[in-house]
Amino acid sequence: MLKMMMRNIAAASSFYCSSRRWRGMPCLLSNSTVVVFANDYFAFLHSQPSKPIKSTRTQLEQPVINSLKITTVQDAFIVFDRMLQMRPPPSVVRFDQILGQVAKLKHYSAVISLYNQMDVSGIGPDVCTLNVLINCYFHLDQMGFSLSVLGKFFKVGLEPNVITFTTLINGFLLKNRMAEAAGIFNKMIAEGNCQPDVVTFSTLVKGFCMKGNNSAAIQLLRKMEEGARKPNLVVYNTIIDSLCKDTLVDDALNLFSEMMCKGIASDVITYTSLIHGVCKLGKWKEAIRLLNEMVSKNILPDVCTFNVLVDALCKEGMVGEAEVVVEVMVQRDIEPNTVTYNSLMDGYCLRGEIGKAQNVFELMLSKGSMVNVVSYSTLINGYCKHKRIDEAMMLFLDMSHKGLVADTITYNTLLDGFGKAGRIQDAQKLFSKMQACGQHPNAQTYSILLDGLCKNRQLSRAMQLFGEMEAKKLDINIVIYNILIEGLCIAGKIESARDLFCGLSSKGLQPNVRTCTIMISGLCFAGLTSEAENLLIQMEEKGCSPDGWTFNTIIRGFIHNKQTSRAMVLIQTMVEKGFSADASTMLLIVNLLSKDEVDPALLPLIKKSLSN
DNA sequence: TTAGGGTTAG
Questions:
Q1: Cβ-count burial of A322 within 10 angstroms (0-12 exposed, 13-18 middle, 19+ buried)?
Q2: Is the pTM above the cut of 0.85?
Q3: Residue A118, CB, less than 7 Å from strand B?
Q4: Which residue is closest to B9 in terms of CA–C1' distance?
Q5: Are A2 and A284 in contact (CB under 8 A)?
Q6: Can you give the pLDDT at residue A300?
Q7: Which of A242, A394, A460, A479 could staple A209 via S-S, CB 3.0–4.6 A?
Q8: What is the per-residue pLDDT for A611?
Q9: Closest-lying nucleotide for A305 based on CA to C1'
Q10: Which of residues 200-219 of A touch strand B (CB under 7 A)?
Q11: Strand B closer than 7 Å to the CB of A241?
């Protein structure tokens, strides 16, 4: 299967080459154009004017400004400076172009300071300038400033347009503020003078997808079909990707067929999402089919498509095969990027081959500025998972030397490492440092800390932290309750565990299979086997069916409580449900057999429970 | 002729 996949990747890539040859002429033209402008641009950037440029726009300057391609923030500042010195200054559109390009490079604070320079020089903004500004403030997490730009519109007599409102909607959605986003959308519809366009709709569709509400996204798609703004490729891609991420690949494929029936052509993003979805489910054959299909439609796999394959292979433990895919990429002129190498590093770490991961890391360092915060977190995770926490900390300290800032995931990784290594004090120190550095702990941070405290028998500190979470009105999810209930059970505080468990529904939370199994384990540990069995029955009734782990837990509980015959009945039920005994249950059963504590009539059943 | 939406890694 894998060899077939490699052949397909190779086939896709050779198509890429011939396809490029086929497109030779336009490619040559555009390259030469780039060269011409690059020369002018270089000259423009590095010419040192002795005095401000006066008079007319020269023959050289105007086309250069028109075609400028900004690749670094430094260039943007140089160009901006030159433009501000020109008399008369270039039109605001030229300034907008630079701001837009810097924003695309994600240097949002640079955009703000460039705008301030414009403002000081008396270059008045237009609608486009202010729209870029709103977007930048949202990305910088400065929502207040974003909204204050709206005031600027009125001050300078400009009317916000559909892009302004869509940018605001997008900003609110990025900050998880669905209500405000929906408010703007509804207002747009109600007031009638600035109707949402297809981008506004697709932004909202993305918002639903981000919230995990695929059905609302699909409902909006259906609404679009009825109205004037018909759904386009971006809308379909957004939903297809979301369905794939939720492993609802069949639904994604149905939507994909629907899109094709409507004559909307798919692109590399559609296929990358679909291939990602099927790879996540281990459906390699389907991945190959899709890869073949895209190539047959002249849609060429790009670096993201290849990265999906590399990552999926790495997660399956097939790093060697992933390396082959990378070789194919290189052969076919698709340069592996940071994402590619990070996936490889993670693959090596998963196999415990930290040295090889370190080699990939060094390779990235040797190639220049390829290493990012994900690279560090990946390697830190590798060291932590293999109990090499001090080396992980060395890497963490090295990050700042590279100008990189550890994020919540980096801290979570290290906190987990400290917790699993039993170094709770170090974890707590790091937790304080994290907050002092302005990194916000998320639900996962708290789960990691609580888990560390519970597993290291520091239940009172865990309960104190839980209290702090409640006081801060943080979103406490079922995972956090599971950790606490388990901690209480292990500490023998079954009453408190039961209280938390019974109080879940009042908090609007539904216990899951894990919650119930933890509770069953705790009840058995406390000798309350009947209550445990009642809970098992209730699970079925409440539509939270016990799994193999639940059955193994309760069976072990009964054996430990010397209720062998009851355990045998449960083994019977487990076998009927298609589950089998795991290693620890098996050990207990073998032990019973060796002591002749099992009715010989039950031997066929036991054999079955072991062989499922 | 500039601004807003869709794909990959921890």
A1: buried
A2: no
A3: no
A4: A339
A5: yes
A6: 95
A7: A242
A8: 66
A9: B8
A10: 200-203, 206
A11: yes
The protein footprint on chain B, as nucleotides within 7 A of a CB, is 1-10
Q: How many CB atoms lie within 10 A of CB A154?
A: 10
Strand B at less than 7 A from CB of A132: yes
Closest CA to A484 of A469, A505, A503, A466: A466
**Token match 């996204």: residue?**
A217
Scan residues 383-442 of chain A and list those with Cβ within 7 Å of strand B.
Answer: 407, 409-410, 413
- Which protein residue's Cα is closest to nucleotide B2 at C1'? A97
**pLDDT beyond 60 at A46:** no
Report the pLDDT averaged over residues A105-112.
Answer: 94
Q: What is the pLDDT of residues A389-426, one digit of tens each?
A: 999 999 999 999 999 999 999 999 999 999 999 999 99
Do A408 and A380 touch, CB atoms closer than 8 A? Answer: no
In this predicted structure, the answer to whether residue A60 has a pLDDT above a threshold of 90 is no
CB-based contact A204:A169 (threshold 8 Å): yes
Sign of CA dihedral A63, A68, A74, A79: positive
Query: Using the CB atom, is residue A272 less than 7 Å from strand B?
Result: yes
Show the 3-state SS of A166-177: HHHHHHHHHCCC
Q: Name the token pair of A318.
A: 């097939």
Q: Nearest CA to the C1' of B3 belongs to which residue?
A: A128
Whether A521 sits with its Cβ under 7 A from any strand B atom: the answer reads: no
Distance CA A275, CA A401 (A): 38
Question: For residues A352 and A386, is the Cβ–Cβ distance under 8 A?
Answer: yes
Distance from CA of residue A363 to its chain's centroid? Answer: 25
Average pLDDT of chain A?
A: 88
Interatomic separation, CA of residue A105 and C1' of nucleotide B6, rounded (Å): 18
Distances in Å between the Cα of A611 and the Cα atoms of A583, A605, A606 are 12, 10, 9
Q: Rounded CA gap, A287 and A236, in Å? A: 20
A105 CA from B10 C1′ (Å): 22
Residue whose C-alpha is closest to residue A520's, from A505, A542, A538:
A538
Label residues A195-225 b or e (16+ Cβ within 10 Å = b). Answer: ebbebbbbbbbbbbbeeeebeebbebbeebe
Establish whether the CB of A445 is closer than 7 Å to any nucleic acid atom in strand B.
no
Checking if the pLDDT of A38 tops 60, the result is no
Select the more confidently predicted residue: A11 or A148.
Answer: A148
DSSP string covering A349-392: HHTT-HHHHHHHHHHHHHTSTT--HHHHHHHHHHHHHTT-HHHH
Closest nucleotide over all strands to A96 (CA to C1'):
B2
